[in-house]
Amino acid sequence: MREFPGFKYRHDLVRDVLFDIFRCAGISAKKEAPVNFLTNPLEGRSTLRPADILVFGWVGGKHGGVDLTGVSPLVGLGVSAFTVGQTALKAASGKVTKHEKACLDNQHVFIPFAFDTFGFLAPEAVDLLSRVQRVMHSNVMTLISMDVVFKRLSFAIPKAVAA
To answer: pLDDT means per 10 residues in the chain (163 residues)?
Structure first.
């Protein structure tokens, strides 16, 4: 599939907002982190993209590689009936197939973060945000700490789509 400039902008905006949410929650993470085990020894360079966000010590001491994917829910409408979230779920599944084994083999956890332009979040994305929200609540403990995680992202996705 060909990527248009707007898709890259949307991806990067949502990634930046998510990274900022991690920072505000006091969670150690790195944006666009190179992951050495995704290097092909024959080519001597990475054959896969860096992790959009690498979250340090996220699951049982293992780092979590978060891979964002934004899709249009209208893709493929002519082929089958419209189902809410269908394209985001399919995108998340494809990312898991592509990256999860390499991550697990190298003691990392793979976390697909798929969303569509209508605001649907795949279950893995909701789970990640719910956990970040709990961490933020225990670390920051303000009245807005319970709302900020989902609210910030719910503004970022439509803003990126509009741009």
So the answer is: 63 92 91 70 58 92 92 70 80 87 88 89 92 83 64 73 59
Question: What is the value of pTM for the model shown?
Answer: 0.79
- Domains defined for the chain, CATH in brackets: 5-38+47-158 (3.40.1350.10)
Q: How far apart are CA 109 and CA 131, in angstroms?
A: 15
Task: Print burial letters for 38-68: b (CB count within 10 Å at least 16), e (below 16).
Answer: beeeeeeeeeeebbbbbbeebeeebbbbbbb
Residue 138 has phi, psi (to 5 degrees) of -80, -30
145 token code pair? 């700490």
Q: Are 111 and 123 in contact (CB under 8 A)?
A: no
